[in-house]
Amino acid sequence: MSSDIFFYLFAAFTTGTALAVVLTKNTVASALSLLLCLVGVAGVFILLDAFLLAALMVFVYAGAVVALFLFIIMLLDAQGGDRKPFKKTAYVSGGIAFALLVVGVLSFWKSGQQTTGELGSIVPVGSTLKNYGEQLFTTYLLPVQIVGFLLLIAMLGVIVLSKKFEGLEDIK
Amino acid sequence: MFDFYFHLPLIVRLVLQAIAVILFMFPVAAACSMAERKVCAWIQNRPGPNRTIAPIGGLLTPLGIVGRIPFLGPFLQQMGIFQLAADGGKFTFKEDPVPAHVNKFYFILAPIVAMIPALTTVAVVPVGAYYAVVNGQTILQPIVLANVDIGLLAVFAVSSLGVYAVILAGWASNSKYAFLGGVRASAQLVSYELAMTLSVLPSFLWMNKPGGQGTLSLFDAVQMQNGVWHGFSMASLHGMWGVFYMPISAFIFLVALFAETNRAPFDMAEAESELVAGFHTEYGAFKWSLFFLAEYCHMIIGSAVCILLFFGGWNILPWIPLTTLIDWLSHFIPFAAHPLFMGLVGIGIFVGKVFSFIFFFMWVRWTLPRFRYDQVMHLGWKKLLPLSIANLIFYTLGIALLQK
Question: What does CATH list as the number for A1-82?
Answer without folding.
Answer: 1.20.120.1200
